[in-house]
Structures are given as C-alpha cells and as structure tokens.
UniProtKB/TrEMBL annotation:
Large ribosomal subunit protein bL25 L25 domain span: 5-90
Function: This is one of the proteins that binds to the 5S RNA in the ribosome where it forms part of the central protuberance.
Domain (Large ribosomal subunit protein bL25 beta) ranges: 98-177
UniProt entry keywords in alphabetical sequence: Ribonucleoprotein, Ribosomal protein, RNA-binding, rRNA-binding
Coiled-coil residues: none
NCBIfam families (alphabetical): bL25_bact_ctc, PRK05618.2-1, PRK05943.1
Assembly and oligomerization: Part of the 50S ribosomal subunit; part of the 5S rRNA/L5/L18/L25 subcomplex. Contacts the 5S rRNA. Binds to the 5S rRNA independently of L5 and L18.
Keyword Oxidoreductase on entry: no
Family: Belongs to the bacterial ribosomal protein bL25 family. CTC subfamily.
Name of the molecule in the record: Large ribosomal subunit protein bL25
Gene it is expressed from: rplY
Cellular component terms (Gene Ontology): ribosome
Length: 196
C-alpha cells in the first residue's frame, strides 16, 4: 500500500528559495517520468521523511492539486554533515509497470565455527513491479562453512522480481578471518615462552 503525501507546485527556484522552504519545514522535490513535464514540488518535511526513511524504493501516492500520482523515490539528496534530507526526486509509475531499482542485500544467520559472511554485492539491480518492490533481498548464511559462497542463482527472490546479473555472480562469501601477527608481538611471545 502506497503512503500518501500531499504536495504543492513550487513557484520559486534556486538555492535561496530551497533554503527558505527548509526553514519553513518544507522540502523541495521533483516528480518526473512517462514523458510528462516534470513537476517541481513543495512537500512537508516530516511527512516525506517518515515516508522514505528505511526504504530507498518507497512507493508513494502524491496528491497535487487534488490529483493523485503514483511514484517511487528515485533519489534522496542529503546534507553530507547533518544527514538531513535536502531534495527528493520521484519517478511516476503505473500499476503493473516494471521498474529498475537497487535493492539492498541483507545477511541473516550465523555461519559455522569462526567463519564470517562477507557481502561482495551490497545492492542488487532488480526489475520489479512498481507496486511490489522488495525492501531487501535476504541471504541466509546459517550453518554455512568456510569456503562456501552464495551466488545470484542461489537467491530466493520474491515472485515477479528479476535480476539481470550473471547467475554465477557471487553475492556473499564465507571465510574465516586471518589474524596477522606482527614481528614485535611474535618476538614478545617467543621471549615470554623462553622465560617460562
């Protein structure tokens, strides 16, 4: 189910206008796609933040002057220091339409022994129905042993989600971390052993 955001058409542009909007707890944004002219928007900061937090591909219904537009979040620009959202780009979509999205990989479970799971791919480019975009792709590594790996072909994908990567691409590798012993600590250990 798409979250509902209400937006107004933005009349002023530029950095000064954007700063004024943010001071009023509003957020500049743009809605584009499907060959229509882009709409420059003014959104409520808090409502937008709540709708997009934790989901890079959030599906939203944006109401502009009484008309609703179905859209996904395409880009969120943040201040590099404060991490506050400064601008949001939305892409128009239609029900049933397939869109290209980046879906984060999440590792669950514990490998066997001292082994650790290392993600080789953090985000997977997928093609999914605009109304059924997965929030993440979960890789279960429970009990996997050193040397095991999970490829794209091994992933359990939701229905109607396609990945265009090579099926043999490695997503997660299971390995035991090696501890490098510096020469100083090796000498200290040898001295301690000799003293004993």
């Amino acid at each position: 189910m798409a979250d509902l955001l209400t937006a107004e058409i933005r009349q002023e542009f530029g950095k000064g206008a954007s700063r004024r909007l943010r001071r009023e707890e509003k957020l500049p944004g743009v809605l584009y796609g499907h060959g229509e002219d882009p709409l420059h928007l003014e959104l409520d900061y808090h409502a937008t933040y709540m709708a997009v937090r934790g989901n890079a591909n959030a599906l939203l219904s944006i109401e502009i002057e009484g008309e609703k537009h179905l859209a996904i979040v395409k880009d969120v620009q943040r201040n590099p220091l404060s991490r506050l959202i400064e601008h949001v780009d939305f892409l128009r979509v239609k029900k049933g339409e397939k869109v290209d999205v980046e879906v984060p990989v999440i590792i669950e479970g514990e490998p066997a022994g001292n082994a650790m799971a290392n993600a080789e791919i953090l985000h997977i480019l997928a093609k999914a129905s605009a109304t059924n975009i997965p929030e993440s792709i979960v890789v279960n590594v429970e009990g996997l042993e050193e040397g095991a790996h999970v490829t794209v072909a091994d992933l359990e994908l939701p229905a109607d989600v396609e990945i265009e990567l090579d099926p043999e691409s490695v997503v997660v590798v299971i390995s035991v971390p090696t501890v490098e012993v510096s020469e100083d600590s090796a000498e200290e250990e040898a001295t301690e052993e000799a003293a004993e």
